[in-house]
Specification:
Helix content: under 10%
Number of strands: 20
Oligomer: single chain
Radius of gyration: 19 Å
Shape: globular
Number of helices: 1
Largest sheet: 4 strands, mixed
Distance between the termini: 43 Å
Order of helices and strands: EHEEEEEEEEEEEEEEEEEEE
Structural class: mainly beta
Length: 256
């Protein structure tokens, strides 16, 4: 039976030692206007489930990865496929656009995270560079605030920080008891923080500088499949398989 993914939000609201409830915080927010949404573009090209996608910072291009073993770079304005990369394995579960827009990263069941330089050549495989190797599938990846480093999460229950140029492991993060399914970098460039969620029902906050887990959050009854920071960086949301919605206020450690 289908069970919708749920949202669990952790927030950091501590002001002058006053107790802020969810209701008080919500009262300070403006009501959302009624939205009228309809599809503007449909990007067709994959032959299997699309498992991941990410926008480039130019707000025009995006990269997607699929169960069909392909990674496609799109021009979302024209719907053109600018690049199509065939991976050596199906189930390409992760993809990410570099901040500069000159490369993309992807990973999946081959346990690797590879980077491809984007240029006008038809065959990008010659520009392929393997930068990460886990002992199980790569479930998620994201560049840091530069093209030089990339974060990965894996079915081996770890996250890792890698140097893109050399492929050197810079830092490993051990704390999950099951597959890591998603991670997200703090939106503040001054912070050294990221969050991860996994099949152990936990969301963990990490210090990238020393590999330490500085905060853990529990509340879901099943796998956490996705995790994203609030734009301000003082909250994050998780999506799970447990068919519940829960809102929690937590003080996140100050690491900025």
């Amino acid at each position: 039976m289908y069970r919708p993914k749920t949202i669990l939000i952790f927030m950091n609201y501590v002001f002058l030692k006053k107790k802020y409830t969810v209701t008080v915080v919500a009262e300070k927010l403006e009501a959302l206007p009624q939205l009228s949404m309809k599809p503007r573009r449909i990007l067709k090209g994959h032959q299997g489930k699309v498992l991941c996608m990410e926008w480039a910072r130019d707000k025009r291009h995006l990269v997607s990865s699929s169960q069909d073993g392909k990674v496609i770079v799109w021009d979302a304005f024209t719907t053109n496929r600018e690049h199509s990369i065939t991976m050596p394995t199906t189930w390409v579960m992760a993809c990410s656009y570099a901040p500069s827009g000159t490369m993309v990263a992807c990973g999946g069941l081959d346990n690797k995270c590879c980077v491809y330089m984007l240029n006008q050549e038809e065959d990008l495989s010659s520009k392929k560079r393997a930068v990460a190797m886990h002992t199980s599938y790569v479930s998620c990846c994201t560049f840091t605030n530069s093209d030089q480093q990339i974060l990965t999460g894996s079915g081996d229950s770890t996250c890792a920080l890698w140097d893109v140029e050399s492929g050197q492991l810079l830092q490993s993060f051990h704390g999950h008891d099951a597959d890591v399914m998603s991670l997200d970098l703090s939106p503040s460039e001054a912070c050294h923080t990221f969050v991860s969620g996994g099949c152990d029902k936990q969301a963990l906050v990490w210090d990238m500088r020393n590999g330490q887990c500085v905060q853990s959050f529990e509340g879901h009854q099943s796998d956490i499949n996705a995790i994203r920071f609030f734009p301000s960086g003082d909250a994050f949301a998780t999506a799970s398989d447990d068919a519940t919605v829960s809102l929690n206020l937590w003080p996140l450690p100050n690491m900025c």
